[in-house]
């Protein structure tokens, strides 16, 4: 069973949705509103038992809720549950909204359509009109979606050895700009008013892996860079302001044979380029989870062999508070940053 939650921007009920999959039965999509005062739950009749749901998602601002079935993609208004747009695109298995909910991306598994026919299986649509903005061929489901600047002025995607940027208002002009580096394996675009992009280049022929940061307006100047070994793949986590970045590195194999899941390390980089470090953790074992506070000034790390330890760090990766040792592997802040949820799955 998969779930997703949101709080809408208007004065309206908090909502949550889940997809109940029962063995031998079709999936059913449920959307409920939780009353603010008494915590009562009101089920939405419009959305009860929507069958054949492949995926679903709220827009970032909570204004829209969308889902994909084998026949179409549907977007509704979360306050009224009225349908905003039905997009008759079959076999979509992934969807994603742009930051302001102006656009929705869809991805379907690539298929061979015939000789010299290219299947453009990643499509960007305007939500309210349902018109196609642009389409691409995207073979891998991993990191399938484009990444947007917060103002939706630009979006970007990775192809071999480069990240391509597009002007959302002038997609007919093709690629707006390119960040080209040999061996790019992953990238992340920051939130915030002055977006940065970080690219990851894995180890090769004895050279260390590295992450390298640029302003999206100038690819000739490196803002920050960090090199390290023991990094087959990474996760990049920005704070909400886009001023600091955490890089969680993973190896496929732990050469010390202490962990089945490989080795992990955590690094901190400031987008201003004036500070970076390895985050020092005082309990041996894997890093289970990392979460930024919504205030962008603190982050929590859950780490170490079970029972794991949780520690709060400040904006320079100094220890601010230790939560002690408990069996847990997941941590989240509430939207206001006043409370944390620390649990184990």
Automatic annotation (TrEMBL):
Residues 226-342 form the Translation initiation factor beta propellor-like domain. The keyword Cell inner membrane does not apply. One of its GO terms (biological process) is regulation of translation. One of its GO terms (cellular component) is cytosolic small ribosomal subunit. Keywords: Initiation factor, Protein biosynthesis, Repeat, Translation regulation, WD repeat. It holds the Pfam family eIF2A. The keyword Repeat applies. GO terms for molecular function: mRNA binding; ribosome binding; translation initiation factor activity; tRNA binding. Gene3D superfamilies: YVTN repeat-like/Quinoprotein amine dehydrogenase. Belongs to the WD repeat EIF2A family. PANTHER family: EUKARYOTIC TRANSLATION INITIATION FACTOR 2A (PTHR13227). This is Eukaryotic translation initiation factor 2A. It comes from Ambispora leptoticha.
